[in-house]
C-alpha cells in the first residue's frame, strides 16, 4: 500500500492511496480460503467447495469486506505516519468508472483512490497561571431564609371556603372564556379553575380585577397580552374575559412553624431552616461557579487564536441555527432583535467559532494535564439520567450501555468541568462579595 500526500492547505490534507492488485487478490483469496471450511453448499462436502465456485458465490461480498479493511488501514496509516489528529471522518473518493471498478474487483487493476481529511490545529496553550479572574460570592441572610420559608408555607397551605369578598392571597374557583374583538380564541377558556389571587399565574392585570369579587359574581376582565407573549398570535392584543366566580377559599396554616416542618418530614423548624439555608447556599454556589467559568472562558478565548476546522464550525453553527429558527417560528427573542437573517447568521457563526475554539482548547489543556473521566463517574451520570425517567430506569440504562455515542455525550461535560477545575487551581482567582441580585444577574443568558 502506497500513501502519497497530494495537498496541504490550511487544515485540509489530501492523500493518494494505491493498493497493488496482487495485494487485494491475496487478501480476497485468504478470506475465501477461510470460508471454504465453514460454508455448507449443497452438492459439496464440507471443506471441498472449489475456490472458483466460492469466488462466484461470495467474491463480491468478500471483495467489499477487503475494500473496507484496506480503507481502514490506509486511514490509520495516514494518521500514524503524518502524526495528525483528525477533526472528522475522512472523505474517501473511490473510482467512479465502471470499467475501472470491475478491473479492480477482478484483480486486474491496482486500486487507486483519494482521501481528504481535515486535521485539528496545533494549539499552544498559554500560561494558565497568568489568568486573573474574580469569583463572585454572596452571604446568605436571615431575610433570604425567611422569604423562602414563607414561600414554602404558602405552597403547602390548605384552603377553606369563606364568605364575603375575595382578597389577595385567597383562592377563587372560576369559569372563564376569553375573546378578542368578540371572537373566542384557542386556549382562552377554562372551567373550575383554581386561582390564587396575587400568584401571577395569569397575565398582568387579570387577578387584580377579581379582588373584591364574591361567589356567584359574573365579571368581565379586560387585559392586554404582553408584547413578548409566547403565543405570538395573541401578543400585544386586547382581550376580554367573561368570568364566573364559583367559590372563594382563604389560606389556612400558611405559617413557617414546627407543624410545617413535620409535614415536610423535618424534625423541627430549626432543621427546616438549616435545609433551606443549605439549598440557598447550593444555588448561590452554582451561580458563582457559572460566573467564574464564564470569566475563565472569556480569558482563554481572548488570549488564544488558531485556525478552526471548517467542518466543526459548520456543524456547531448548524445546531445553533436550527434552534434559532425554532425560536423565530415561535416568536422568541431571536424574532424581536430587528436584525436581518444575514446579520443573525453572522452573529451566531461567531458564537459557533467561539464554542469550537474553546472546545478544542479545553481538550488540549485536559490532554496535557492527563485529565481522565473514570468509568465510575460515567456510571454515576447514567444513573442520574435514569432517575429523570421514573419507571423507565432499566430502559435508559440499557440504552446507554448499547449506545457509545450517548455515553460520550455524558462523558464530555464531566471532562469539561474537570478541566475547568484544573484551570481554577492554576489561575489567580480572588473572591469578590456582591449582592444576590448581582450574582444572579443575566443568569439565563450566560453563554459559555
TrEMBL record:
Gene Ontology MF annotations: peptidyl-prolyl cis-trans isomerase activity
SUPFAM superfamilies listed in its UniProt record: FKBP-like (SSF54534), Triger factor/SurA peptide-binding domain-like (SSF109998), Trigger factor ribosome-binding domain (SSF102735)
Coiled-coil stretches noted in the UniProt entry, renumbered to this chain: none
Catalyses which reaction(s): [protein]-peptidylproline (omega=180) = [protein]-peptidylproline (omega=0)
Taxonomy, superkingdom: Bacteria
Gene3D superfamilies named in the record: 3.10.50.40, Trigger factor ribosome-binding domain (3.30.70.1050), Trigger factor, C-terminal domain (1.10.3120.10)
EC number, UniProt record: 5.2.1.8
Record keywords: Cell cycle, Cell division, Chaperone, Cytoplasm, Isomerase, Rotamase
Family stated for the protein in its record: Belongs to the FKBP-type PPIase family. Tig subfamily.
Domain observations: Consists of 3 domains; the N-terminus binds the ribosome, the middle domain has PPIase activity, while the C-terminus has intrinsic chaperone activity on its own.
Official protein name in the record: Trigger factor
Species the sequence originates in: Terrihabitans rhizophilus
